[in-house]
Amino acid sequence: MERAGGGAAGWRVRSALPGVTWPALPAPADAAVLALLLQLDASQWLPPERLREAQDAQLEALLEHARETVPRYRGERLASLRETPILSRRELLERFEALKSERLPRGHGAAKETRTSGSTGRPVRLLKTDLTALLWRALTLRDHAWHGRDLSRKLAVVRQGMREGTGRDWGTATHGLLATGPCVARSPASSVEAILEWLLAEQPAYLLTYPSLLRELARACLARGVHLQGLAEVRAFGELLDPDTRALCREAFGVPLTDLYSAQEAGYIALQCPRSEHYHVQAESLIVEVLDDSGRACAPGEIGRVVVTDLHNFAMPLLRYDLGDFAEVGEPCACGRGLPVLKRIVGRVRNTLVTASGERYWPSFGVRGFPDIAPVLQHQFVQKSYDLIEARLVVARPLDSEQERRLAERIVARLPAGFRVQFAYCERIGRGAGGKYEDFVSEVSA
Hints:
By secondary structure, this protein is an alpha/beta fold. 25% of the residues lie in helices and 24% in strands. The protein has a 12-stranded mixed sheet with strand order 4-5-3-6-7-8-9-10-14-13-12-11, sandwiched between helices. Strand 18 (388-395), helix 9 and strand 19 form a beta-alpha-beta unit. Helix 6 (211-224) packs across helix 7 (243-253). The longest helix has 22 residues, at 48-69. The N and C termini lie far apart (48 Å).
């Protein structure tokens, strides 16, 4: 395994066998995670054609299982992925029972129901197994190894649903398997100032939270002139990470910012490359298609909708599931990994600006420069009509007409012709279901 910054080479495996501390003998499930990680360490360097061959073999087994045991697919030909119909979120919501397998292969473990956060308004129910949980743990450890994290240090997590306080390890992925430092957790419902004071007191080496909260913390650090001592890396998840936020975090924290792309339905989709800011698809776990409006696979540099096939969820096979996300395909990576590349994650359909002609854009408002114009603490943009953007702002003090004029000019300059801006001032802009925050939302249908 890679030795960058210590990485997996410096990890200490826990032993589950009484009287044996070295070499450690982990419990069977933990040993399975290490076995998967060992294989992932080798498979990441396979050429793309070898990866596709391995995917096809696993896909064949999954399709056969779906044809035989899943009511939705019984009688379907399913001879190849391209002949398989795309599964929409609506179908997953409305046909839960028909998409469940009537029996699991031996050894996959129990099927457990889980739900998405419901950030779009309706939580999705789905089933997962012990096998999918093992793969999730192994891919989490891959991410730690790629980025050379020192597991003996302190991790701070700010996310919805976390039990606040201090845990003895970094969570499910490492629990019982690897010795780690403590994990301190806090809810994002606290004020930014309270979270910053907590971080200054805890002095973690690693911080994991939403990009929107990282942006607010970075602004607070710069405004107060404070620095998070001992911080080695900030990690983002759950929301779109834009270039402005990356630049702001570099300025405020002076440490690497690592992002990941995941979904409750499919687990890890892509992890940030350890040598660049683009993302490697986790091809050992799932097949990712990026498709244009005609259903054709996008070429490098093109943006399309993200369709995923989970290769190991036999309890509820998600075959060509349309996540509702858009991404840009990237060129093969100079790091040498054969894993497919996503250059950037663009956002969801509801996060695209729509014009009267039906064209869609992923707007960028240049928010990094807002504090140079006015004391903006928080922002959110909502498309109200084909020519109107509502800029919802939380400000440290009321803005004068000149500040509003300059902000409006900056916003309009980054929009298609014909748009205007109106301001709405708020005491606070809350987070949605699952703790997620959306910078831009369109209330207009194409």
